[in-house]
Structure formats: C-alpha cells, structure tokens
Amino acid sequence: MSKPSDACNIKVIARFRPLNAKEKNNGGTHTDYVVLFEGNSVHVTPPSRSKSTFHLDKVLTPEATQEVTYEHCARATIEDVLSGYNGTIFAYGMTGSGKTHTMFGSDLNSPTARGIIPRACSAIFEYIAQDNSDSEYTLKCSFLEIYRESIRDLLCPAPSGSSGLKVRETPERGVWVENLSEHFVGSEKEILELIRNGERFRSVASTNMNAVSSRSHSLFTLTIQQRAKDGSVQTGRLYLADLAGCEKVAKTGATGELLEDAKKINQSLSALGNCISALTKAKRGHVPFRDSKLTFILKDSLGGNAKTTLIVNCSMHGSNLDETLLTLKFSARAKLVTNVVKVNRLRSAQELTAIITKLTKEIEHLRIYIADLETQLLSAKPTIDISAIKKASLVRYTLNSTGDENEISDSSDISRSSSTSDFLSLSTDSIAEEKDEKLNESSNGVSDTQNKETGEDTLSLVEARLDLQRTKEESSLKIREL
Questions:
Q1: pTM greater than 0.90
Q2: CA atoms within 13 A on the CB side of 431
Q3: Which of 25, 45, 94, 182 has its CA 20 to 30 A from that of 167?
Q4: Cα-Cα-Cα-Cα dihedral of 351, 356, 362, 367, to 10°?
C-alpha cells in the first residue's frame, strides 16, 4: 500500500564540456562556437542557418564542476530514492561528449574529480549515519553492461563466449534481469570497490573521437530498503546509466570490430529515440520497449514508476554542430515524457488493522443508515418492492466493477441460475408498476401537486439507497483487498 501516484515529467539537464585539445588545435576561438546560453535555454546558431532554441530544466556551462553537476542533476533524485521512490539518472550524447566523466569521474575517491555515482553512494551512507529513526537499512547493488545487445554481469563475469543474460517481465515483479548477481553492501568503501571491479570488465576502445570510448551501455543499480520500528517497509531503487555515445563512422574512423560496435550502439540508441517519440504522441499507441535490451530494462524509467533525470552531454564547438543539434532535439522530446510515480511502501500490521477497524465501523454505520432509509421509503410508498431495488443495485454495481454480466457476488441472495437480464427486467417492471399506480392515484382525485411531491421523494430515496448500496459493497471490497 502506498500513497496515491503522482505524475512528473522527465527532468532534462544539458552539460556542455570544455573544448578538448583537438578542437582547440582546429580553431578554438569564439567565432567557432555555435552555442550560446541564456538562463536555462540553449541557442544554437549554425552558419547560414536559422537559430534553434531549446528550453531545458538546467543548462550547465563548461565551467560547471563535478560538485555543481551533482547538486543540479542528482541530489534531488537521491533524496527521492531515500523517501521510497524509484529514481533514474542516465547520461546521453555523442561519443566523446563527457558522459562517463559525468557519471563516474576520472577518480572515484577524488573530492573534485569523482562523478555522480560515487557522490551518490557517499550521500546515501551519510544520510543513513545521520538518521535517528532507528530504521533498519539493507542495501544491495548490481552492475551490468549491454554490449552488442548482450547483457553481461560486470560483478560476476561469465566465461568468454557465454550467452548473455535474459530480461524477464511479470505483472508482479515488473522488468528484471534473470541471474544478475546482487551484492549486499554495508559501506561506501564496499560499493566503490565493486564499481572498480566492474569497470575493469567493461568494453572500451580507442577511436579518433575518444581515446577511451565506451563500447557498451552500463547500468549500476542500488536498492535501498528501510524497515521502520512499526514493521512497515519502504524500498527505493536508484538506476544510474552511462550510455555509449552515438557515432559517425566518418569521424570515429571505426573499422572491423569497432564498426560492428558502432552499429549496435546506434541501433539501440535509435530504439531509445523511437520509444521517446511513441511516449510523447498525443494518442499513445504501442511503445516498442522490446526492440532493444536497453529500452526494455529502462521501461520503468520511461513513462513508468521512476523519477527520471536525463543528462545530455554536448560539445559547443562548430565541428560537432550536427551531433549537438540531434542531442538537443532528443532532449526536447524526452522532456515531454510523463512518468507516474509512487512511494514503494508496505504498511505495517498495526496500520492495516487500524484501516480495517475504521472501514468496519463505517460499514456498520452505513447498514444502520440504509435500514433507516428503507423504513422511510416504505412509509412514503408502502407498495414499493425493496428486494427488487436491492437486486437491481447489486447488478448495476457488479456491471460497473467487473464488466461481466454473468459474475455476481456470492454474498448476494440472487440465484446464480437467474440471468442478469431477469434482474434488469424485474427492476424495469417495478418502475412500470410505480408509474401505473401514480396514474391511478391521479385519476382517483389525488392532486397533481401531491403526486409530483410523492414521486420526487420516492425517486430521491431510491437514488440514495443505490448510492449507499454501492458504498457498502466498495467498503467490503477494500477490506478483502487488505
């Protein structure tokens, strides 16, 4: 049980990296810049082409430090996860745009150089150390990569040549990776050690665009379970994804195996773009999550139960104009995706008992209220058939709640051999008899005014009786669900 769901859009933040040595050597003056910043807007002004403007949640200029990046991109998500929500942060952009630097950093232990993932781990354990609620915390993590549409466990690598892990989905559990190892951790040091071990097995290579280019998507998942003193359990999941960059083969110079890597990377990123486009259509139809392992695993993060932050990494140099424009257009579409999130919380036995007690008292009150209304209804109209009204209201409620005319609650006194149409006709006959009686009363000298008042009172009581019957049934269903 959890509180009602909330809707929120994907949060989009653009981070522009400084010029690298190659770009400076090829002309790093301001005349080569094609990007201008204005608050949280980005203006792209290509030579001899019209200006394009993109409005984002935040724009981080090349001067932004790793700490500033964490504050704007991740702190709120970490707080949400500790409050029982699911949270996702993933970096997207062209190859060599600084995604891995943003997510991991150049040094996991350096106060200035470490990225979002090690800072998030530090913040979580700092929060736990300061918590005075006597809650019991359990943390476990997993680390995988998607290389050429094959899922590999980076914390428990399979022998070379082994088939990849499978992605499964069930209504109860959602989407998960079968046989992916999960490791319980008790300190920041343990998590960072696991990350270091996992990074050693990640697929990387050197290209003309990046000396250490990620050839796979990586996903680090941290599950935080909090058990309170009253027995209630709250679970938050944090998904941290470093996506491989989209590539232009003419720029990267990829050949042979690197070319095959680039094909699979671009294919999976195209599938991600297709899912984003499908989710933002006015009339949502089929969303092709299963076209790629990446989109299938991130299904909850795209229109599902997760507060998602997308970091788009870009270059502001003119030589990367096309890639920057494509990245920003992707971010503009992603910003329109709406997720429906809720707190993942299981109530304690005491809370459930209190709810049942409250609903039981409410039902008893409604029973007395219904009996009083039936008495008033019979006083106003002695010939009315109360049992027929009960049967008709039960049929009406059953049809509204299940949509099946043949399924009637066991608690009713209606024979299962009778069809729904019989009950509906019974109700219709009862109403017809009332109309005939009203006409007879009118013909016997009863004034039109009196007849009108009696009819209105009767109909009002009937409507009240039906509403109360539905409330009673709904309360019973709530108790059965609990």
A1: no
A2: 11
A3: 94
A4: 180
- Residue 411: band (very low, low, confident or very high) from pLDDT cuts 50, 70, 90: very low
Distance CA 44, CA 326 (A): 11
Q: How far is CA 159 from the centre of its chain?
A: 35
Q: CA 233, CA 303: separation in Å to the nearest integer?
A: 25
Strand partners, 145: 152, 218
Cross-strand bridge partners of residue 167: 177
Only one residue has tokens 């470093």, namely: 242
Residue 463 above 80 pLDDT? no
Q: Which two tokens stand for residue 148?
A: 């050429």
Q: Which among 231, 233, 265, 271 is positioned nearest to 247, based on CA atoms?
A: 265
- Write the pLDDT tens digit of every residue in 310-350: 999 998 888 888 889 999 999 999 999 999 999 999 888 88
pLDDT (average), residues 34-62 = 87
Mean pLDDT of 151-178: 89
- 67-74 long-range contacts, CB within 8 A, separation 24+: 67/112, 67/119, 69/15, 69/102, 69/115, 69/116, 70/115, 70/116, 70/119, 70/120, 72/13, 73/13, 73/15, 73/102, 73/116, 73/309, 73/311, 74/116, 74/119, 74/120, 74/309
Q: What is the 3-state secondary structure (H, E, C) of the chain?
A: CCCCCEEEECEEEEEECCCCHHHHHCCCCHHHECEEEECCEEEECCCCCCCEEEECCEEECCCCCHHHHHHHHCHHHHHHHHCCCCEEEEEEEECCCCHHHHHCECCCCCCCCECHHHHHHHHHHHHHHHCCCCCEEEEEEEEEEEECCEEEECCCCCCCCCCCECEEEECCCEEEECCCCCEEECCHHHHHHHHHHHHCCCCEECCCCCCCEECCEEEEEEEEEEECCCCCEEEEEEEEEECCCECCHHHHCCCCHHHHHHHHHHHHHHHHHHHHHHHCCCCCCCCCHHHCHHHHHCHHHCCCCCEEEEEEEECCEHHHHHHHHHHHHHHHHHCCCEEEECCCEECCHHHHHHHHHHHHHHHHHHHHHHHHHHHHHHHHCCCCCHHHHHHHHHHHHHHHHHCCCCCCCCCCCCCCCCCHHHHHHHHHHHHHHHHHHHHHHHHCCCCHHHHHHHHHHHHHHHHHHHHHHHHHHHHHHHHHHC
Rg of the chain's alpha carbons, rounded to an integer?
A: 31
Residue type, 368: I
